[in-house]
Amino acid sequence: MKKLITIFCVIFWAGLIGGISFLEAPLKFQAPGITIPLGLGIGQLVFQALNKIEIVLLIIILVCSLPAPLKNFHSILLFSVTILLIADTFWLLPILDERAKLVLAGNAPIKSYHHILYIIIDTIKFLSLIVLGFLSLKSLYHEKRYS
Hints:
Keywords: Membrane, Transmembrane, Transmembrane helix. The chain crosses the membrane at residues 46-64, 76-96, 116-137. This is DUF4149 domain-containing protein. By secondary structure, the protein is mainly α. The protein has one domain (2-142). The protein contains four helices and no strands. Helix 1 packs antiparallel against helix 2, helix 2 (36-65) packs antiparallel against helix 3 (73-104) and helix 3 packs antiparallel against helix 4 (114-145).
């Protein structure tokens, strides 16, 4: 049952990132009447909620997966996703949140690379989760087939 829960959480998480980061976020600014401040305000709420859900999903995945030595590709991917989420949560999201607050207050923040870095990290997280999901499904299939 732990494997099924893990697989569900991994695939669900990848779907959230795909839907929010790669679909909702860029399209929201194309909607009629959406201004930059309004889009940023919505984005702050959505990405704060996404981050909390990601943390819960990671905790569930880790509880269902541990103990797992860092000896196989599956464990290395899970460790990588964990590090990337920690970087998002404690470094990038606070910086991006402060930049959004500056814009919402009518100030122009200085140019930075943080938004591009967030997109890169989300892309790596997304791809890692997709691979992790496929590896988990493959492993489950082989267990069922040969048992």
